[in-house]
Amino acid sequence: MREPPIAPSGLVQTAASLSAVERGTPIGVAVLGSTGSVGTQALDVIASMPERFSVVALAASRVSPLLEAQSRRFRPEIVAVSNEPEGWAGTGAIESGADALALAALHPAAEIVIVATSGHAAMGPTFRAVDAGKTIALANKETIVCAGEILMPLALARDAPIRPVDSEHSAVWQCLAGAPPAAVARLVLTASGGPFRSLGADELARVTVDQTLAHPTWAMGGKITVDSASLMNKGLEVIEARWLFDVRFDRIEVVVHPESIVHSLVEFVDGSMLAQLGLPDMRLPIQYALTYPERLPSPCPRLSLVQTAALHFEAPDLARFPALALARQAGEAGGTYPTALSAADEVAVEAFLAGRLRFVDIPAVVADVLAAHEVVGPLSLELIAEADAWARRSARNAVERRSAPSC
Ligand code: MG
Predict the structure, then answer these.
(1) Of 23, 40, 131, 328, which one's alpha carbon is 20 to 30 angstroms from that of 54?
(2) 36 belongs to an annotated ligand binding site
């Protein structure tokens, strides 16, 4: 039994795709970023299927009461933290330091690695897990945005399936169902539009951090919630889709869909469109990434079409939300431009959350950095690390130039 290809390049089935029930032993899972939003929901899914999955490694940035509680509940063999632990009251051997995340990802008993760590720290360990042929359930955006161009060929060479966890890409994956690239006319990613969808340009200039963090449909971490409000998140997802599904940028469209019920669509060459619908609940795409190709009962609340009644779609306003266009430009430029985009955005969002930058200046900072960026040489992890460091410095300077005394 071969796993239907997710990308035209074709990622094939590994033992992890065999049903645990068929095998008689649970599938070992490493959860990187276990204390974050996706990580905790992934552990909820795993806890609901103890006969199918067992947690062999947990990784988080630091020791916390939550991480200790997770270790006591799931009894992993190792727990990895990037910061030096000041006491450990959990279960399992504690590992720390620069290589701890990779130790968790490469644990010999881990067949599936859930990469839910935020930011660039997940990139190296994810490459090593792919190199080792593990199945990756990928929730981390930066890895595929910055390094998709070199990650996907490696995954193909190592027979290491990369399964999307992001709701939009899970939707596309489910709609594609292994269809060949020649059958696909375009992908349509939906965006909720965030809390500021209907604000005018002058109102956008005055929005506060609290308003930005009040997302209308999804409960997520701070960085991604700001990115959702600016549509940068959707721009990053366009780049993700380009690499995950090997579809050109001009065939990836974004539509604003405020209800967040249709998670994305695929239009085929005959004009037929398939959509994936459900209530916004990350446990669904997480579960599908774990149990694929099987579909299993889920505790998630069910969608009632009659109660939903109406679904709305509109074109995104690129004038008010320029981040979407910036991301597309960076994606099309390729090389380290997506890295510069992602790193600059991270610095700008941090400055916004700290009250040092206006919301509307987030894309302005990113545009400054992209305008100054230059690509040298073929893409590699080293080049990505250099571009990341350069873009952060450049973005901090751009923030300085733009931060008004009144902020
Ligand atoms: Mg998403």
Answers:
(1) 131
(2) yes
